[in-house]
Write a structure and sequence with these properties.
Elements: H1 2-28, H2 34-38, E1 40-50, E2 56-57, E3 63-68, E4 73-79, E5 92-93, E6 96-106, E7 111-119, E8 129-136, E9 142-146, E10 154-159
Antiparallel strand pairs: 1-2, 1-3, 1-10, 3-4, 4-6, 5-6, 6-7, 7-8, 8-9, 9-10
Length: about 160
């Protein structure tokens, strides 16, 4: 019985030591990877897009949610206020934006790419790869911009 107790105690101590070493290793690195920081659900804090003159233009602020999963899937939804429900473009149909699919992160270039598998605008986005530039702010916000030269919008997200 004493040998069984000593064996269990030794196993427990080994697991505790390993766990502590892994925790110290993670804390010692000083930061999580960008891929790790993206994981989870985000709510829309602010969206901006320039007007025809290139200056920021006030637009009705939608409500929105962005989700990145650890296994490489993403989903984004934005609902514009009723006053803007006539808005439709490549991303938005009748004031609603939604797409889902997978994503890849390139930490060296601070870019991520959404690979669209489904969208409310159907064939306008399905099958497309949407490159995005991301930035984490000091206060934990996530700013995403299009990497396309013809798009100049910026979206700020906050973790739930």
């Amino acid at each position: 019985m004493k040998a069984l107790y000593c064996g269990a105690l030794a196993t427990f101590m080994a697991i505790a030591g390993f766990t502590q070493a892994q925790s110290a290793k993670k804390q010692g690195s000083g930061h999580d990877s960008a891929g790790d920081k993206l994981i989870g659900a985000w709510h829309l804090a602010h969206i901006e897009a320039p007007g025809l003159d290139g200056n920021p233009s006030p637009i009705p602020q939608p409500k929105g949610m962005l989700i990145y999963t650890r296994d490489g899937h993403m989903s984004v939804q934005l609902m514009y206020p009723e006053s803007a429900n006539a808005q439709s473009n490549e991303y938005v149909q009748d004031g609603y934006e939604e797409s889902f699919g997978s994503y890849d992160v390139d930490e060296a270039t601070h870019t991520l790419t959404h690979h669209v598998q489904g969208s409310v605008t159907r064939n306008l986005l399905i099958g497309k790869d949407l490159p995005r530039v991301y930035q984490f702010t000091g206060d934990g916000h996530l700013i995403i911009r299009s990497a396309r030269a013809d798009e100049h919008w910026s979206v700020t997200w906050e973790h739930y």
